[in-house]
Write a sequence for this structure.
């Protein structure tokens, strides 16, 4: 079997970096991406110091130019993409009531990053996955995107993750006759820049379900929402 190729977004730190680490350990060829080249290269060096080799490509998921360029680069270099981890995310609407949240400074950038980024990348890479009839797409959502648990606050982040969940179901259903499995997960509350130092989980724990979904067998689940490898309420 040919070596699998994986692309991870927002992978210079936090859960994304840990996902790269674990995928390489499984023998998968990893393209670590980051919006800042210096930060991305520093992350590549961090992994290299552990004896883990990954490639780096710059990718701001909100930039159409970056997205088109990375599709071109991956197609030219590998001719395939097997695993897409839509991990990059921002959470910038703490403690501001929905009535007062700035559309331009908070809602638009949050949805462009957390929802439209994954949406565009899925549209771009599924045709390449189809050529080899293999794909595993993992969307990193949040418990705050669980529609059944919605309460006040965090409107931008919640909308972006509810949308990501809905997007997952739509793509999974449209791809049901293929070997491309699209799933969404929540990592729980994880100690990262986004989660903060008080969070209860390590990045290893946060990454576990992502790795499981990225390496599902052909008869694995599709179009489902998971936490800790178990179904999680929509
Ligand atoms: N930590 C938690 O408790 C928690 C809980 C639920 C869900 N999640 C989800 O887990 C995912 C990873 O978050 P994390 O906790 O690892 O947070 P993190 O440490 O803040 O990492 C977020 C990553 O996303 C990158 N990013 C942000 N905007 C980007 C863009 N436009 N293009 C490309 N990369 C971009 C950041 O890059 P820069 O370094 O350049 O900013 C960083 O690498 C997110 O989708 C988040 O919503 C986290």
């Amino acid at each position: 079997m040919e070596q699998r190729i994986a692309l991870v977004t927002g992978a210079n730190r936090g859960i994304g970096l840990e996902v790269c680490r674990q995928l390489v350990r499984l023998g998968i060829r990893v393209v670590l991406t980051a919006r800042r080249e210096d930060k991305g290269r520093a992350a590549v060096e961090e992994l290299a110091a552990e004896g883990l080799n990954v490639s780096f490509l710059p990718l701001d998921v909100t930039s159409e130019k970056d997205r088109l360029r990375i599709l071109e680069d991956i197609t030219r270099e590998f001719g395939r993409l097997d695993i897409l981890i839509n991990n990059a995310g921002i959470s910038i609407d703490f403690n501001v009531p929905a009535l007062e949240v700035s559309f331009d400074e908070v809602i638009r950038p949050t949805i462009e990053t957390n929802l439209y980024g994954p949406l565009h990348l899925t549209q771009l890479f599924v045709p390449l996955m189809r050529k080899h009839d293999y794909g595993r797409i993992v969307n990193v959502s949040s418990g705050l995107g669980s529609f059944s648990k919605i309460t006040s606050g965090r409107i931008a982040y919640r909308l972006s993750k509810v949308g990501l969940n809905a997007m997952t179901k739509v793509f999974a259903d449209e791809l049901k006759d293929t070997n491309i499995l699209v799933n969404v997960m929540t990592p729980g509350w994880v100690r990262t820049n986004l989660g903060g130092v008080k969070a209860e989980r390590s990045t290893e724990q946060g990454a576990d379900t992502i790795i499981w979904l990225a390496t599902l067998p052909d008869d694995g689940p599709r179009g489902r929402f998971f936490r800790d490898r178990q179904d999680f309420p929509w």
Notes: Residues 5-231 form a domain with the Rossmann fold fold (CATH 3.40.50.720). The two ends are 36 Å apart (CA to CA).
